Amino acid sequence: MTVVKSTLPEADRKIVGEALQHTLTDLIDLSLVAKQVHWNVIGARFRSVHLQLDDVVTTARTYADTVAERAAAIGVTPDGRAGTVSKSSRIDEVPDGWIKDEKVVAVMIAALDAVIRRVRQGIGTTEKPDPVSQDILIGLAAELEKHHWMFQAENV
Amino acid sequence: MTVVKSTLPEADRKIVGEALQHTLTDLIDLSLVAKQVHWNVIGARFRSVHLQLDDVVTTARTYADTVAERAAAIGVTPDGRAGTVSKSSRIDEVPDGWIKDEKVVAVMIAALDAVIRRVRQGIGTTEKPDPVSQDILIGLAAELEKHHWMFQAENV
Amino acid sequence: MTVVKSTLPEADRKIVGEALQHTLTDLIDLSLVAKQVHWNVIGARFRSVHLQLDDVVTTARTYADTVAERAAAIGVTPDGRAGTVSKSSRIDEVPDGWIKDEKVVAVMIAALDAVIRRVRQGIGTTEKPDPVSQDILIGLAAELEKHHWMFQAENV
Amino acid sequence: MTVVKSTLPEADRKIVGEALQHTLTDLIDLSLVAKQVHWNVIGARFRSVHLQLDDVVTTARTYADTVAERAAAIGVTPDGRAGTVSKSSRIDEVPDGWIKDEKVVAVMIAALDAVIRRVRQGIGTTEKPDPVSQDILIGLAAELEKHHWMFQAENV
Amino acid sequence: MTVVKSTLPEADRKIVGEALQHTLTDLIDLSLVAKQVHWNVIGARFRSVHLQLDDVVTTARTYADTVAERAAAIGVTPDGRAGTVSKSSRIDEVPDGWIKDEKVVAVMIAALDAVIRRVRQGIGTTEKPDPVSQDILIGLAAELEKHHWMFQAENV
Amino acid sequence: MTVVKSTLPEADRKIVGEALQHTLTDLIDLSLVAKQVHWNVIGARFRSVHLQLDDVVTTARTYADTVAERAAAIGVTPDGRAGTVSKSSRIDEVPDGWIKDEKVVAVMIAALDAVIRRVRQGIGTTEKPDPVSQDILIGLAAELEKHHWMFQAENV
Amino acid sequence: MTVVKSTLPEADRKIVGEALQHTLTDLIDLSLVAKQVHWNVIGARFRSVHLQLDDVVTTARTYADTVAERAAAIGVTPDGRAGTVSKSSRIDEVPDGWIKDEKVVAVMIAALDAVIRRVRQGIGTTEKPDPVSQDILIGLAAELEKHHWMFQAENV
Amino acid sequence: MTVVKSTLPEADRKIVGEALQHTLTDLIDLSLVAKQVHWNVIGARFRSVHLQLDDVVTTARTYADTVAERAAAIGVTPDGRAGTVSKSSRIDEVPDGWIKDEKVVAVMIAALDAVIRRVRQGIGTTEKPDPVSQDILIGLAAELEKHHWMFQAENV
Amino acid sequence: MTVVKSTLPEADRKIVGEALQHTLTDLIDLSLVAKQVHWNVIGARFRSVHLQLDDVVTTARTYADTVAERAAAIGVTPDGRAGTVSKSSRIDEVPDGWIKDEKVVAVMIAALDAVIRRVRQGIGTTEKPDPVSQDILIGLAAELEKHHWMFQAENV
Amino acid sequence: MTVVKSTLPEADRKIVGEALQHTLTDLIDLSLVAKQVHWNVIGARFRSVHLQLDDVVTTARTYADTVAERAAAIGVTPDGRAGTVSKSSRIDEVPDGWIKDEKVVAVMIAALDAVIRRVRQGIGTTEKPDPVSQDILIGLAAELEKHHWMFQAENV
Amino acid sequence: MTVVKSTLPEADRKIVGEALQHTLTDLIDLSLVAKQVHWNVIGARFRSVHLQLDDVVTTARTYADTVAERAAAIGVTPDGRAGTVSKSSRIDEVPDGWIKDEKVVAVMIAALDAVIRRVRQGIGTTEKPDPVSQDILIGLAAELEKHHWMFQAENV
Amino acid sequence: MTVVKSTLPEADRKIVGEALQHTLTDLIDLSLVAKQVHWNVIGARFRSVHLQLDDVVTTARTYADTVAERAAAIGVTPDGRAGTVSKSSRIDEVPDGWIKDEKVVAVMIAALDAVIRRVRQGIGTTEKPDPVSQDILIGLAAELEKHHWMFQAENV
Predict the structure, then answer these.
(1) pTM over 0.95
(2) Is G143 in a helix, a strand, or coil?
(3) Minimal C-alpha gap between C14 and chain D (Å)
(4) What ipTM score was computed for the predicted complex, to two decimals?
């Protein structure tokens, strides 16, 4: 059933759709991981890290919505279900239970690293077929790399 | 490692912790399911249902946070990771791809039904050991049953 | 026609539905009575009482909506029509025309008294069948008894 | 007891007072009717109609207050008690229980029709004796006829 | 020098200009009188009357601006200078020094009475030549008569 | 097809509908003209005039909506399409390209003059058949004549 | 007369100026078309479509301003006059009079389609000469294609 | 009648009371003068000067209130009646009718000059008897001298 | 003198009044203790702890007001005077002077612990006599235990 | 331990520190006293006085914070503990239980009187050693004397 | 010391870092220059230019922050110290003292011209190595060229 | 050219002008230094210090504007150009590159120390010639010494 007629030719639609779908699952997992450590963090820096993690959650949720609706707009159905996220995310699973603040910072640096790498690939593959989707991924990379810097800066 | 000294005796803490953990995974899945159909819904009622689903997402996200932080407050570490959600949620997986509006309404009635049932159980089991946690679940049930009514009312 | 499937067993649904319906008619009448004397109050305390009455109207209207939608949520159709209110309210009819400020205060103490009495009964009858509805009535009682104190305090 | 000295001669005061009193009872009933169907509406258009009805409630409550205070300002005591509303309103009583969305729309068209007719008469009778009250009724007619159009437009 | 070309014929412009100029001086004086007693009021009702007077000041200042700019818009230069106000206002001068609350209420009833009388005349004289200016005076009369009622209601 | 049953008799509906339709096309054109010179104005007064023009755009857009919805409310379908505006507007076409600030002021005085003239006629023709529509045109005339004064005042 | 010195070489300025001018006329017409059907839509989905159309109007008006001011910024005078819009827009004229909701949705899909096609061309032609203007067109395409998806999704 | 017991000895109370009373009449007149020219200004700078004058009105009204209530707080009854202002203000009367923008600027420089001179004297005389009143006059001088600079700067 | 007629029987009123009075003195002292260390905290975590303490102050002040007004509402006069607080609070006196951040965290854990213990007792004793007061104490316990967790989490 | 290096010489630091510490204890007690009578006031003026007292609480709390942080800023550790307040405040203890409105007003006049007297002394002693602290006390005196006037004015 | 691991290869990091550093010093100087003339401007257009300059300051400060944090995010330490700005900025030093409005406009056109030229170069050099940084420079160019147009338009 | 006529005699004007000019350059440099370390700070306290520094920037920018406009108001042209700041600031240059959090705190203590010292001198020299300028410096000293305390408190 063709519900939404894409403004992109079929081949381009497929390339772009894939990049958006990868980004979507990574971002949903990023939001779940950041919440998980937001709740379980302990240590002297508790309050500071607890608040900082919610800034990451805001980025992840906002862009997950933007990216999923961009997929729909080019005629690709986004898939953000728990099972899909659990299978496809590139972020390593975080350990269960209380987790020390410096460990949380390390976990977030690694998680952001994984997401940024796929977003950077998406920026490359979408450039020609769809500069509109590329522009969204560029804006996302700017936010993710800012969080990335901040966690690194406090990990010295 | 005892990080947070519970104000509840050990047996009570366990009962309440379990009720909160069940609610947490159900609520995270509810937020993912509602977003999934928010993006993929089609049909004449598209805009109305699309907006209504974001009200469910707001309830689910707000209470997931409240419930997880309540668990931490009684010394229980909450687990909201993708894998845990995927394995433990009581909500049936929604189908992939575009989905007609009346089907979306049916999906949401079933999903809310499943979550409400466990929350109602939690209200029962937490009453004696921790009226504070019970009060949170009661507030949550009120919101979920309101959404439940609304989807049923438009499904006639 | 079963439109909204109740999460309560039939017997409980009936008890709770009755408590909510009684509260609804009392609250609508309370809002009408408070407005009536808001418009017709005279005397040196005019401005103070005039403003205070709108606080009561806000409580009454907000909770009338909450209570009616709670009824719908458990599958009971609320009835807030003028004829029903006029017949079922427990508040005595206020006299027509200009009304002195100290008389207004006495009228409001009596009106709040009548409504509180039925809400207190509702708290008792709903406790077992539906703690969710009970919680709403408890919150309402807190607001009504606060207004009740204030009018009494200025009636000395 | 002459509490408020009217700026209008006695004959004019009576004509205008009657027009305002009629409008007041109609508007209070309109707000009760709109809330009644706001709570009991069912059908595919549930959410849209549910929200639309609260816009009518806002118009009815705001103007009821304006009209009643205008009556007081010209020395006429307004009467908005449940019994008076129930006896004097020109709106037909709505049926009890769940009510289908297209039926709700028809109910609202008829209710608005009845209120508008009396307001239009009031515009005529108040023109000479009190252009200030007339101006309020004109503003009210504009809002009511806008709601009237909208319900008609969705009833095609 | 013809700066602003009036949309009204010369005779109409003069009639309307006069009505607006009278209203302007009365309103400026009303704002000064209300502030004077706002500062000097004493007695048990101090706080209530003190606040109520600022509502009158708001009406007077807002409409003074509207009326003066309406005059300019029809090519008539408004005159709101202290000397002009002092000479032309219809409000009796209020006594100097501390002033008891019930006396303040009486002063305001008389002041509002004087202003309303001239505004009512203006409504009559502007009807034919300029319904736009008339509409402004009608809106002003509604606010002034509302204040008038309130002060009378608390003077019983 | 009778979609919206008018509250006006047929003859009145036609007179009023025409006045509203004329106003609509004039207001849409006024908004386009004001934007055109907002973008192309040059000269020492650039910033001041640039900002002032957006105040006119706000008036024109807000009242275009009000007037069009008023037409619908009395059962007349408004026509605000580009072709209709281009053919029916009474405002002279403004020249293309950069335009000096004093020329912009002159253009706006003329444009407002043209619109005001038709609105003033509409106030006359709608008085008897529909005081509700007349009241909207009166409010619009007040805003337009205020802009008219301001541009004239700075053109001396 | 060279008023604004372009930061672009003449050839580039011409290419970019043309793309912006085309976009401007299309966006103004889109805003007029969306308002036209916003006022004339009828049918069961009236309220939902009526509100959705104002979202399109907001996009169209906001970007028309951005695009026209971008043209000025590179030294090109934008032309948004009614005659120009009427002659140059790529959107088909919509029919006069009441229009059924599903027809409105179809009209909007076609209108958005036409605008998107030219914007997509503009993204191509401006890439080399002016990435700043291109970035604006990319942001606009993202919004237009989102509206496009939504109307298609509710047209199934 | 001693209503408000001053925290100052009688001699100090008199000196400070006089300084505050002088400031009060000057500030009220400043607000009337600024409004007078706000309404009657003409010339190319109309809009800019028109808006700037309302900033002066805000300063004058805010500090008039502060200064009058400070007088009351030290047991001195403030006098801000039209007759008193007209007799005691140090500001020269402004001419009637339209007034060119550069003339308005000159009028305001002179008016501010007169007010500042008396405020500066008040700062000197209140220093010893009441640093609290002095602090208010210092804050006022800062605002007045800022307006003074701005009008001078645009008068070059 | 019976000022406020309690809705509770005398025995219940006494039990509930005592629980509320205990909570009141503890909460006032909690607010004073939290402010004391908010001002005197030193150490690397200064800013984080300084801000966190104001969140505790907000909880303590808000609930002190709610609890005291609840006492009044059931006819019990609350006592929140400095002497009473100093004598009856269960919180240990904090040391004078600068205090290191980790010591502050320990002080707050102990203070919250003491308050929570009495609130938990109050939840038990008020359950039967007054579910309305109990509900307030439950809400308070939820907030206090959340602060308690946070200070413990950062003390690892 | 020298934590904060004072910008004042030791002798000055001591004088200023004492003035600030006295003010701090008085202000905390003022906030507790005002809350005590805010909860226990009865009589016809209940609502007016109840609200007015919260304005005093706001002043007292805001300046307590400012004054305590000023002490810290000059290297003096502030002491605002319940025991210290109870021992050092200059305000007489208020009676327990319900208290009539006119008695409340008298209590507040006396309490403000006591605090103002010490603040006035502080203004004198801090002038030379620290004009920065003096400026804070001057601002505080202005607010306290304003409350003082208002309570006196309503006590006539 | 490698504090922040760049997501860019070393050669790209160096090119992009340089472009960002140049932009940073130019933007800080632009903010200082705009403030300098904001304070020293004189002439008939004083107020208009004074306000317009603060819009430039807002752009300059906002983007200076964005650009510096982007540098940090790619592992390059930004340098915005006064000495660096003074030595590296491409903007010519503005003259000291009062400066006429038309001269201010010319100064700003030249300053913006200088900054835009380097930003345009940066857009070119960053395109390949880092589209994320390029996107920030493109957004900045859009704002700077808008200010550039406005100052030119008022310089005719 | 005498543009702004000073309200101060020439000798006073010179003394005060110098104090303001010194403060201006120090404040601009303070804002640049605080931003420099805001971007380059690293270490476990990164986030807390990063946010705290922006509070200093806000103080510095707000008072720089106030101080510069105060200079203009007394007829002295302020000089805030990069070269002037670089040459005249009393703050030591901060090192380039990443900088550890405890080092940042030390840098800020020293920078604030230097600025406070000159501001304190300015408070002394301006007291006689211009209490208005002195009052601004006093307010500034209060804010700077508060930041000074906070950085010292976290440096223990």
Answers:
(1) yes
(2) helix
(3) 15
(4) 0.97
